[in-house]
Amino acid sequence: MMHDFILDIGSRTIKLHGLNNTGEVVNLHNITWDILSVAPAPDTITACIEQSLGALPSGGHRLKAIGTEAMRRNPELAQMVEDACLRLDINYSTISQELEAELISIAAQRHGISREYDVVNAGGGSIQVVRQRETELELLNMGITDLNKAFSLHAEPPQRDIQGCIDWLATQITDRPRTIAYTGGERTYLDHFGVPIQSNGTCHQSDFEAFAREIGGQDNDWLIAHSPFDARWMTGAIASNCIVLAFMHAGRAKSFLPSDLNIGHGLLTHAFGRSSGLSIL
User: How many angstroms separate the CA atoms of 157 and 258, rounded?
Assistant: First the structure.
């Protein structure tokens, strides 16, 4: 039985998560959209939220909706999302990038990611880096959609500037990172494509580089047909691969830890934010 739910209205995806009686966070529904490139009409926003709500189980529940970078950049879009949620009787807040980083940090702590890892969480318009050992945050004001646009990563293979993207990203990382844990469905993504995972849960750099080269050379029809999630999710896969490679190269790491954690895990597993003073609910 689930009673507590988070609707994460992100720049690239809408994700519905629930907390079950054993304290496990369960992903119930995903929709990929790209509202940083083109803001959707109000009716489209409402329809997408309603589609997610269709995955809610029957019975009483608490539901909170949060918005991230697309809404931070575009106040008109934030208002449309808030209005749609209001019509559907959903409590909504646009959260700061600092709070995103705090939530992914909470998720990492509560789900046992060692403090030896720097945790990297990438969205459509922002990247949060949690340096767990130092309890420091690094906030990058660009994300997957921005990289797609700047380096044509969502175009067909001849137009993609993959190495240019990796090299530029490495210059944006201010401090040399440790080995990273990379969140947001990454473990499911690698498992789906059969990328080797070691007994400690990490992926070797050489295995990931070989996989990234293969994905980077596939046309868009192939990527869409082989998505581990919905069809449009793979439009961000190449940019996401570039982020992982840039952090590994900047840190001279030989591996990284793929993780399915996201900010919803941080919020739901922390009693809806109340016990740490997080005040978004």
Answer: 25
- Structure tokens belonging to residue 68: 């991230």
94 DSSP β-pair partners: 67
Taking CB atoms within 8 Å and a gap of at least 24, the contacts of 193-200 are 193/226, 193/228, 197/258, 198/255
Report d(CA 266, CA 281) in Å as an integer: 13
8 Å CB contact between 190 and 258: yes
Among 68, 58, 51, 52, CA closest to 17: 52
Class of domain 2-96: alpha beta
**pTM beyond 0.90, yes or no:** yes
Q: The tokens 């539901």 sit on which residue? A: 63
Domain covering 112-258 in this structure, CATH number: 3.30.420.150
Tens of pLDDT along the chain (281 residues)? 678 999 999 999 999 999 988 888 999 999 999 898 888 999 999 999 999 999 998 877 889 999 999 999 999 999 999 999 999 999 999 999 999 999 999 999 999 999 999 999 999 999 999 999 888 999 999 999 999 999 999 999 999 999 999 999 999 987 777 899 999 999 999 999 999 999 999 999 999 999 999 999 999 999 999 999 998 999 999 999 999 999 999 999 999 999 999 999 998 976 554 444 445 45
Domains 2-96 and 112-258 share a fold: yes
**Token digits of residue 269:** 């597993």
Residue 165: is it exposed, middle or buried by C-beta count within 10 angstroms (0-12/13-18/19+)?
buried
Task: Residue count of the chain, please give it.
Answer: 281
Sequence ranges of the domains in the chain: 2-96, 112-258
